[in-house]
Design a protein that fits this description.
Layout: E1 3-18, E2 24-40, E3 44-48, H1 55-62, E4 70-76, E5 82-84, H2 90-96, E6 100-103, H3 117-127, H4 133-146, H5 163-175, E7 181-185, H6 193-210, E8 213-217, H7 221-227, E9 230-235, E10 238-244, H8 245-250, H9 255-262, H10 303-307, E11 313-316, E12 319-321, H11 334-342
Parallel strand pairs: 3-8, 3-9, 6-7, 7-8
Antiparallel strand pairs: 1-2, 1-4, 4-5, 9-10, 10-12, 11-12
Helix pairs in contact: 3-4, 3-5, 4-5, 5-6
């Protein structure tokens, strides 16, 4: 499977400004700080981590919705040509955005309440000069039906729809330009549980029909396990582990991943949940600790962890980990946690 998009040592640092006019920069929030990964054509790559880890910033920086401050973003186009999205000018970037789209987290805030569904979905075709008139109408009708809504909905405004229907409209808006790559920024977190499954199934069916590639950002680890082929774990602006979904869930190699897997709820009301609790608070991203950034909360940390930053390196086929002790630790995975709780 070929690579569609890759990032190398990507950085997004936001300046901290103080003073009477907020003109003096006193530091930087390192929202993304040296993250590297690749996304393969036709796959869904999950991106997980606690709030504030930099997931959303990373996803938006890939599309340059947020401007990176360092690193490289390479889009591998059909035919073998490569484009560094970080260095292209705005005119070229606007053209490339036809290949890449974003589905936002909040279906209530992401749709313009003063525009009809027809105008919301068709706007991109007009902006890019792709279609207008009858051709635009035909394309809009086709994509709205593909997303599970009727053509009669096109004349309505967003307030007339439920949360699930609004997210379908958001998905249709992303699909109208026929992109190859879509960043799904927590697309189900604002929806009822019963609707979440419908949206996940819609995304999977669209991927199979259209050959789409997704970056799926989420907190819901059960949804990630269902939707994703591979998963990357992010902590304090860095990727700390990445592997195929089953391998990462059942045999984690990073202590932070172990803590995330242990927090997956088990559908047994009599089970006593025993998650791996992390001591202390997440460090300030404006002042990250030296060495391994997880060492302040890691029960396995030693002197090396406190002074040397581990590289994201392979430990076996396709399994990358940034941990000095990945080869020697035996960590608890999601399956072992579920089995232990079921027999408690």
């Amino acid at each position: 499977m070929s690579t569609l998009l890759s990032i190398e040592n990507l950085e997004v640092h936001f300046p901290i400004r103080r003073g009477a006019t907020f003109g003096r920069t006193t530091g930087y929030v390192r929202a993304v700080d040296g993250a590297s990964l690749e996304i393969r054509r036709g796959e869904t790559l999950g991106l997980v981590g606690e709030s504030g880890s930099g997931k959303t910033t990373l996803g938006r920086a890939m599309l340059r919705v947020v401007e990176p401050t360092g690193g490289r973003i390479t889009l591998h186009l059909e035919g073998g040509s490569n484009v560094d999205l970080r260095t292209v000018d705005r005119v070229e970037l606007r053209r490339l955005w036809r290949h890449m789209q974003l589905i936002f987290q909040d279906p209530y805030a992401s749709l313009n309440p003063r525009m009809t569904v027809r105008d919301i979905i068709g706007e991109s075709l007009l902006v890019h000069g792709i279609a207008k008139g009858a051709e635009l109408e035909e394309r809009v009708v086709e994509v709205i039906r593909r997303c599970g809504l009727d053509a009669e909905h096109l004349g309505r405004y967003p307030h007339a729809f439920s949360g699930g229907q609004r997210q379908r409209i958001s998905i249709a808006r992303a699909l109208i330009l026929q992109p190859e790559f879509i960043v799904c920024d927590e697309p189900i977190s604002a929806l009822d549980v019963s609707i979440q499954a419908q949206i996940l199934n819609l995304l999977k069916s669209l991927q199979q029909e259209l050959g789409l590639t997704y970056l799926f950002i989420a907190h819901d680890l059960a949804a990630v396990a269902y939707a994703c082929d591979r998963v990357a774990v992010m902590y304090l602006g860095q990727i700390v582990e990445m592997a195929e979904t089953q391998k990462l869930y059942y045999t984690p190699k990073h202590p932070y991943t172990e803590a995330l897997m242990s927090a997956i709820p088990v559908p047994d009301p009599d089970a006593r949940l025993k998650p791996v609790l992390l001591p202390g608070e997440r460090p300030d991203p404006a002042n990250p600790p030296p060495g391994c950034r997880f060492h302040t909360r890691c029960r396995y940390a030693d002197a090396k962890c406190r002074t040397e930053m581990p590289a994201l390196a392979p430990i076996d086929d396709g399994h990358l980990v940034a941990c000095h002790h990945a080869g020697s630790l035996t960590l608890q995975g999601a399956r072992e946690q579920a089995d232990a709780l079921a027999t408690a």
